[in-house]
Amino acid sequence: xxxxxxxxxxxxxxxxxxxxxxxxxxxxxxxxxxxxxxxxxxxxxxxxxxxxxxxxxxxxxxxxxxxxxxxxxxxxxxxxxxxxxxxxxxxxxxxxxxxxxxxxxxxxxxxxxxxxxxxxxxxxxxxxxxxxxxxxxxxxxxxxxxxxxxxxxxxxxxxxxxxxxxxxxxxxxxxxxxxxxxxxxxxxxxxxxxxxxxxxxxxxxxxxxxxxxxxxxxxxxxxxxxxxxxxxxxxxxxxxxxxxxxxxxxxxxxxxxxxxxxxxxxxxxxxxxxxxxxxxxxxxxxxxxxxxxxxxxxxxxxxxxxxxxxxxxxxxxxxxxxxxxxxxxxxxxxxxxxxxxxxxxxxxxxxxxxxxxxxxxxxxxxxxxxxxxxxxxxxxxxxxxxxxxxxxxxxxxxxxxxxxxxxxxxxxxxxxxxxxxxxxxxxxxxxxxxxxxxxxxxxxxxxxxxxxxxxxxxx
Length: 459
Prior knowledge:
459 residues, mainly alpha, two-stranded antiparallel ribbon, 2 strands, globular
């Protein structure tokens, strides 16, 4: 009996340790982004730096194995599937590195970061969301964070949802209203709009998910608060968009005639310079390129800090066409050979049209700004399966979230939806400061809604 109690206590310590460390990492990633992600720790491999994200992965893997040992869990079909998946990723990584070099290691991260969802599904205990100290601590911490330092604008919407999730769960109305009032005063609303078009679109999709729940699912509990939220949230969001959104970003989306005109212009230039293209080569590449002071300004955080920042309309059109040309090239290259297991992880993406237009590919680390297309391009049928698994688990999360008692599950699902939509337009699942918090949060959200469903079924 005492041994069982001791193991349960040890397992809980493992959970709390993992969650606390993950919370610190998520906070640092959201504030410092690439500058925290580039911190390295001693590595046993000469010449290959071990970044803090990989260190966190190894740390969580050890705790995960320890937790399962303490629980006496036996390997099952999901463990076998995870092992096969990791062996496949290892084979792709090694083969790509032998053929092409260091780029293979960077692209491997896209397929390793999802294990954080597995880890934190195991570590998360739904009771943490309802524990009074946890609710007050996180609510206060988010409010203080926005008072002292605004996180990267990519994370602003996530912090907003997390804060709302905890503040509405505070039992006494006076405390809840005090926290909510303070947060609404200090919240940097412009951070919701000082983002790329794809991020703004993701915010709209996430809010639409919440709005549908409020309007149709929760209509049986049509309280004054619900009616206020139904009317107020869309109006406030649209009002903020009218004030803060970059007008050129909107014009570039709605003015399709101008976009087509720019496309025709670029095609004429590319045709004139078509003989200047070359074939994909195996030039030596560095393992990674450290961000410079110039790179810092180009990040959304610094654009947010510059109230006068506005992209040119020409640049906005070019940005859209850059993505479309790149996606067209990747789809065509994949369709030409139809590799069952996709392109080598180390193979650079070098569209000939980019060379014709003198659009630099920089250090030849060209990311497609669509994580799902990247998965399919790099791993073929396995990539299709991986995208399918993501959709299935999100559908399960969304379905169970709307049946949870209270709004916590819906806000969790809305947060995950935001990041999954952003991944269609930005480099999200490839980068540790976005991917690690997302996958960890995804695992915890699924666990919470699964536990709530079990409680409801047994009630």
